Amino acid sequence: MKRLKTFLLLLLVAFCPGWTSPAHVNLNATDNNGVLLVYIGEMGAMGVDIAVEIDSTVGARYDVVFQNGDNVLSHIAVFYKFSAPNQTIFYNYLSHQSVTHNCCESASSGSNVKAAGTGVIDNYSCTHVQNVNNNERNATDYWVSTQVPGYSLLLKILNSIGPGYQQLFVDGNIFQWGGLVRMTSTSHGRTVGSIDLTEANPAMSFPAKDFDVPSN
Question: What is the rounded CA–CA span in Å between residue 128 and residue 143?
């Protein structure tokens, strides 16, 4: 669960292995309120796929899939709606169980993240943000940019959730510098995990059911 929460940074952020483009999305819709962000990476021997759907009129949903080859080890989806600003629902596609969290039960205890420089990644002007802990033996580095599509919607969601959101989204303070472009985790100087933004589509239209928690 600790590994999973590390990757639930995205707020706002993969479906099953082999998923590359959601066939249900209507790219030719005339009223596109949505943003799609897709991330691909790895954690040790596991592959990680993350997809984020944000609809400016509905809310956000993101799926995180851990897999070993074609074997799906974990598939968790997080659902958030503007109509229920104090509620976030985690759904496990393997067990078909859901857990509801009150996002604002308590305020965040703070964050250890700090800006460590700037750089350009995949044409995004990024701020390098870092979290170092355990006497500098472990570090997580984030490259974030305000140019990432959906960033303004991301801030809207964070502001709606309030200060307690960091209970669910690790190092949520990184988003004050921008949306996530790349993340790497190191332990004792060795890279143990990474994810990269591989698709950013700012003109999407999603079916309403995408933001509803499955009934089974």
Answer: 5
Residue 157 has phi, psi (to 5 degrees) of -70, -45
Q: Per-domain residue ranges for the chain?
A: 2-211
Q: Is domain 2-211 classified as CATH 3.90.1150.10?
A: no
Give which of 9, 7, 106 is closest to 65, Cα–Cα: 7
Helix (H) / strand (E) containing 198? strand 190-204
R_g (Cα) of the chain, nearest Å: 16
Positive/negative CA dihedral, 173, 174, 177, 178: negative
Structure tokens at 203: 């003109």
Query: For 139-171, what is each residue's pLDDT tens digit?
Result: 889 999 999 988 887 777 766 665 544 444 445
> pTM of the full predicted structure?
0.78
Residue 50 in contact with residue 100, Cβ under 8 Å? no
Is-contact 154 54, C-beta < 8 A?
yes
pLDDT, tens digit, for every residue of 178-195? 889 999 988 888 888 999
The two structure tokens encoding residue 109: 């205890």
Cα 143 from Cα 148, distance rounded (Å):
11
* Phi, psi values for residue 120, rounded to 5°: -120, 125
21, HSE (Cβ side, Cα atoms, 13 Å): 7
214 falls in which pLDDT band (50, 70, 90)? very high
Structure tokens at 167: 């209970």
